[in-house]
Design goal:
- The chain is α+β, with helices and mostly antiparallel strands.
- It has 15 helices and 30 strands.
- Among the domains are: 152 residues, Neutral Protease, domain 2 (Orthogonal Bundle), CATH 1.10.390; 86 residues, Immunoglobulin-like (Sandwich).
- An eight-stranded mixed beta sheet has the order 5-4-7-2-1-13-17-15. Strands 16-19-20-21-23-22 form a six-stranded mixed beta sheet, with helices on both faces. It has a four-stranded antiparallel beta sheet with strand order 8-9-18-14, with no helix packed on it.
- Strand 24 and strand 25 form a beta hairpin.
- It is globular and about 85 Å long.
- The two termini are 51 Å apart.
Amino acid sequence: MIKSATLFFLLFVVFSALHAQQLYMPRDIQRAYDKGTRSLNGAPGKNYWENHGRYNISIAVSPPGRTITGHETITYFNNSPDTLKGLNMKLIMNIHRPGAARFRPAPDNYLTQGVQIDALLVNGVKEDWNNKTAATTNEMAKLPKPLMPHDSVNLDITWHYALASGHGREGAIDSTSYYLAYFYPRVSVYDDYNGWDTLPFLDAQEFYNDFNNYTLSVTVPKNFIVWATGTLQNPAQVLQPEYAKRLAASMTSDSTIHIATSADLASKNITAQSETNTWIWKADNITDMAVGISDHYDWDAASVVVDDATHRRASMQSAFPDTSADFHHAVQFGRNSLGWFSHNWPGVAYPFPKMTSFQGFADMEYPMMVNDSHQTDLHFAELVQDHEIAHTFFPFYMGINESRYAFMDEGWATTFELLIGTAENGKEKADGFYKQFRVTRWIHDRSTAEDLPVITPSSELRSGYGNNSYGKPSLSYLALKDMLGDALFKKALHNYMTNWNGKHPIPWDYFNSMSTGAGRNLNWFFNNWFFTNGYIDLAIENVTKSGAGYKVDIKNIGGFATPFDVIMAYADGATETVHQTPIIWERDQKHTVVNIKTAKTIKTVTIDGGIFMDADTSNNTWIAK
């Protein structure tokens, strides 16, 4: 008996080890784990490091002139164990140069000469720079001597560029309203698994930035208002007393305060009446800065409690043309977003002091700001703003590499968009929108590119980028939530977010953090959703009488481990629904059996995935003969 028990135990251990499959890990990622910068429990390793910068930026803008002039000093800290012989600089505005590599053709009013570096000093010594040859979004700045581990270097950069028309993420919205993003030269990320981030910006995939400390000064003519990432340091110097008072009052008000209305703007007496005003903003431990300016945008604001324990409030502000009816609701929509995300999903207090919704064209997120387009449908306007504000947590609370792994932020924003949309508009409407915009185009597209594994680096995708970044990963997060249940899923998610707040997670950190947080090995699930060419297609193979009920045989043609409902219609006219979570696919991801205990006679059986839409529903119903 002892020998038999021992043998059974050993067989169980071996089976469990085999079953807890390992996830594919590229060699560069494996090296990071070998070096101890990342750990298999999902937390940063004992040797984890990341580099930082301290940026002091001054820019001047004089609408309707389109030239942006800037000067910055950067202190860059090399916390890595490596000696750096140069610094890779991100010059995102070079995307506007004629001939720049892009995912799509550019109209004439998009084209400029890009960033023009007027002077570059390294530790006080002037370095050569050729604007004709330094024409890409990545350019290496030479160092007069190597930057040693745990040392720093000082950069002094003067530059200018011409602002293009703003039909994308940044630019001129109208003749005197501008949105400035990616407007300053920055040191790119140097990380523990890839070294310098030299992926080109192609005006499609997004960004990867270090957590830096910023002081930003924006000089504009009088009567122009400035909105920016961070906290305004000098409201009393740039605003007339009445408007500074309104801004201060909004910081503790649930109700929308109209800081500057169209009537106020017409008076041209909102700002200090010097020829120019310099608005100063500060933000620490954040990944980027963005700026909006206008002389005719309304300015609304209020605030909301985002942390019940400390009673901390976050400011919600909005800047927009008075004619945009939807933006008159933006502050209250935003208050709802900030409060809901803080208290529900992800259930982490909004980490920043404010959020500003600025009307542009992009429907794009920035730290503490969103640049959203005007919408005539209020429900859609709210949903767009919800989605962009949700990005606060991914990629800004956690420094996601969006250029390489877009699903790590877009997938989560899409998930939170559905969850908050359900609270705002009800399940039926939220699910309908989600299926229409996030699932339908993928599930009915048989193209090879649409079934590439989600883990495929975003930088390698052209076709399939949208579905691999938004809908498919979002469905995986929702499937995992369904399988674990809300409480355990949130516990695991918080473990991941706590591990990587203010750091640079990669997919394997997510996978391992969730397994550790959930207290179970989830590799089978992650392998299914992220490393296979799966899609969603279930079929009822057969329904047979079995003991005290029926046995429903279901084939997983598409392969993804999805939840689904089994709906029985009985001969007496009654119906019954039995829900199956993805756990039903853990042992066998191609076939499963659902046992229905009933003394009634079944007339039909239907399987329905809800938002997990089936590619072929013709085999989803069985009818008794």
